[in-house]
Amino acid sequence: AQSVTQPDIHITVSEGASLELRCNYSYGATPYLFWYVQSPGQGLQLLLKYFSGDTLVQGIKGFEAEFKRSQSSFNLRKPSVHWSDAAEYFCAVIEGGTSYGKLTFGQGTILTVHP
Amino acid sequence: GAVVSQHPSWVICKSGTSVKIECRSLDFQATTMFWYRQFPKQSLMLMATSNEGSKATYEQGVEKDKFLINHASLTLSTLTVTSAHPEDSSFYICSAKDHTGGTEAFFGQGTRLTVV
After folding, report:
1. Is B48 at the interface with chain A, CB within 8 A?
2. pLDDT for A26-71, tens place per residue?
3. Residues 6+ apart with CB under 8 A from A80
4. Which of A68, B5, B32, B70 is most deeply buried (CB count within 10 A of its CB)?
5. DSSP labels for A87-110?
């Protein structure tokens, strides 16, 4: 069965610093990969997704992620964090060809931003 | 972008009562909707897949008689938590996929259920 691991439960960075959130997946074929952000008590907003093609994908709010097949990773990055980026971030995967709503989520990483 | 609305945003109910949560796609039609549950400080877990006009498909370990799902139209799916107990207190989130295609499922804002 496919699985998603986010090794960091909680990350704290200073405003303006760079950010990298880690995500590793376990799946035989090339999965479809997503990053979502969730503010407290809110639903999920899609930041970016990877299906195929260029392994570096750009998303909203200045985020990007890089798919590395050799490392089974899909890490999320941002060059300069803003205080408004404080939230919880989820990496998710679906099996290629299956319904795009049936997602398997990682455990989530809580991001705290210090002024 | 497409909008999915959940109602209510939060609800408190007494133990033993039933609660209905609605998930509506406001500007698109969704033959398939998904219901997730998120316990505090945990990730989202898929509970069931809701199919318009047919029975829902439940994930392993989810009691179909306790979590009743109805998807009677292309824009509405409901989740009813029957005989709710405090351990059912959770954050329930739905998502919906546009039936015309596309690669994204859109999420509602979630419903915080507290059973007292």
Report:
1. no
2. 876 778 899 999 987 778 899 999 988 899 999 999 999 999 999 9
3. A16, A17, A18, A62
4. B32
5. EEEEEEEE-TTS-TT--EE---EE
Tokens (6 digits) for A101: 């709503």
> Is the dihedral angle over the CA atoms B114, B54, B71, A89 positive or is it negative?
positive
How many Å apart are CA B4 and CA A3, to the nearest integer? Answer: 27
For residue A101, the chain B residues in CB contact (below 8 A) are: 32-34, 49, 95-97, 105
CA A5 to CA A23: how far, in whole Å? 6
User: A90: which chain B residues are within 8 Å (Cβ-Cβ)?
Assistant: 43-44
pLDDT in tens, B40-80: 878 899 999 998 888 999 999 999 999 999 998 999 999 99
Cβ-based contacts of B33 with chain A (< 8 Å):
101
Measured between CB atoms, which of A100, A102, A106 is closest to B43? A106
Q: Scanning every residue of chain B, which has its alpha carbon at the shortest distance from the alpha carbon of A47?
A: B104
- Cα separation, A27 vs B2, in Å, equals 29
Which residue's entry shows tokens 């570096």? Answer: A56
- 3-class DSSP assignment, residue B98: coil
- Grouping H, G, I as helix, E, B as strand and the rest as coil, residue B22 is strand
Q: How many CB atoms lie within 10 A of CB B62?
A: 17
pLDDT number for residue A67: 94
- Nearest in space to A21 (alpha carbons), one of A61, A73, A70, A69: A73
